[in-house]
Amino acid sequence: MSSGGGQQSQALTKPTFSEVQASALVESVFGLKVSKIQPLPSYDDQNFHVCILRTKDTTDGPNEYVLKISNSESSKTPDLIEVQSHIIIFLRAAGFPTASMCRTKGDNLTSLISVDSDSEIKSYLVRLLTYLPGRPIAEIPISPQLLYEIGRVAAKLDKTLEKFHHPKLSSLHRENFIWNLKNVPLLEKYLYALGQNRNREIVEQVVQLFKDEVMTKLSHFRE
């Protein structure tokens, strides 16, 4: 990715649905009529904040959702998406304030849709989750109590997930997944993005420390 190839790859796999197309998806796949839709920030998937019209069939349910369209690369591994969805359901049942999964008209958690993109057929897995209102932690003042609460919830989450079982759980183990904390050395491929400044030096030092102090002991850590 040092030549920017990874960014190009991300651009090729990230969905580019318009708001009109996304609204049509919500109606055709999930049977809900959209009153308002707007894009949400995302990395390599595409997310929309969806408000639905109330009907006699939806008077009791939520009226705000997140439509999540997985990138075409992740959509090739439906087992991974399935496990993620079941984890969300599992955590909600355990009392965590997670979203609820909305089932498709065919009573599935996801739907694989295919679109014609520049004479090429691309497939995307689509999910609909209830919208959770709130503010990103980066936007609120940090206090020791807040940090304590974050740590407490993270620990509770960790302990709860020890009880989660699924026949396709192994799909979560992706060796070269950049967001896996044991893959810190992979960040070296992205150092070019920092240019030549003090921040780059710091990152290089941290990566080297990780190689020297952590990689040599990884086999002794609980994963």
UniProtKB/TrEMBL annotation:
Catalyzes the GTP-dependent phosphorylation of 5-hydroxy-L-lysine. It comes from the Eukaryota. Keywords: Cytoplasm, Kinase, Transferase. It is an enzyme of class 2 (transferase). It holds the Pfam family APH. SUPFAM superfamilies: Protein kinase-like (PK-like). Its main location: cytoplasm. Its EC number is 2.7.1.81. This is Hydroxylysine kinase. Residues 58-190 form the Aminoglycoside phosphotransferase domain. Belongs to the aminoglycoside phosphotransferase family. InterPro entries: Aminoglycoside_PTrfase (IPR002575), Kinase-like_dom_sf (IPR011009), Pseudomonas-type_ThrB (IPR050249). It is found in: Cytoplasm. It comes from Phocoena sinus. It catalyses: (5R)-5-hydroxy-L-lysine + GTP = (5R)-5-phosphooxy-L-lysine + GDP + H(+).
